[in-house]
Specification:
The protein is an alpha/beta fold. It contains eight helices and nine strands. It has a single domain, classed as Rossmann fold (3-Layer(aba) Sandwich), CATH 3.40.50.
Length: 227
């Protein structure tokens, strides 16, 4: 797997429902090369969001290992995992763009300043930040705060933050779920355009089969074997 943008081996994750353990991921492995896109599909509860959280370091698997951009994180080495938080944080700030189902904006900053901050942390030029808001159709809202705009507008600002990073890897969890159809199509066009232009990897969790078909590869978590 040397040279891969991202890989995972033997991932396992379970949660408790009452007194019963519920397996979400069981011995899952995957690999992504630079410039590739992978669609994650499956019923609600099949583990799409959990997998994305593991791949960006926000959640630990019960077993298995993950390699991202030359960094390896292995559950068999608990001491190393304790020291991994700073490395994961640096990756998310500089090279991994994460799009959550709910926009993750700082409420005390305007939409434009949220985008500028993300670009600055990633070491990118802030000059493009207004342009990204314009391209996503919310340029006139640049100086408004998150609580002054709609949920869909906040989500577009969150996407602008990721685009301004020019990341090596984008992990997107239902990124257009709160957008109307026309806006969603425009946003997706720009997402794939960004990926093609910069050669970044993309893992996209979605319930939309048309959107999934646009990715190079497809992993249906709902059809993985369950113990």
């Amino acid at each position: 797997m040397v040279g891969s943008l991202l890989w995972a081996r033997g991932l396992k994750k379970q949660f408790s429902s009452g007194n019963e353990p519920v397996s979400v991921l069981q011995d899952l492995s995957l690999q992504l090369e630079p410039g590739q896109s992978l669609a994650l599909t499956g019923r609600s509860g099949s583990g799409k969001s959990t997998l994305l959280n593991i791949l960006c370091g926000l959640e630990r698997p019960d077993a298995g290992s993950v390699g991202v951009l030359g960094e390896t994180f292995d559950t068999r080495n608990p001491e190393a995992l304790k020291k991994a938080e700073a490395r994961w944080g640096n990756l998310r700030r500089q090279q991994i763009g994460v799009v959550f189902q709910e926009a993750n904006l700082m409420p005390a900053l305007s939409l434009l300043d949220n985008v500028r901050l993300r670009a600055r942390l990633a070491g990118q030029d802030e000059q493009d930040c207004q342009d990204w808001l314009e391209r996503l159709g919310i340029g006139e809202l640049a100086n408004r705060y998150p609580d002054q705009v709609s949920g869909g507008q906040r989500q577009r600002a969150a996407l602008a933050m990721v685009f301004a990073m020019k990341p090596a890897l984008i992990l997107a969890d239902e990124p257009t779920g709160s957008l109307d159809r026309q806006t969603a199509e425009s946003v997706i066009e720009q997402l794939f355009e960004l990926q093609a232009r910069h050669g970044c990897g993309l893992i996209l969790a979605t319930h939309d089969p048309d959107l999934a078909s646009r990715c190079n590869r497809h992993l249906d978590l709902g059809h993985l074997p369950v113990p």
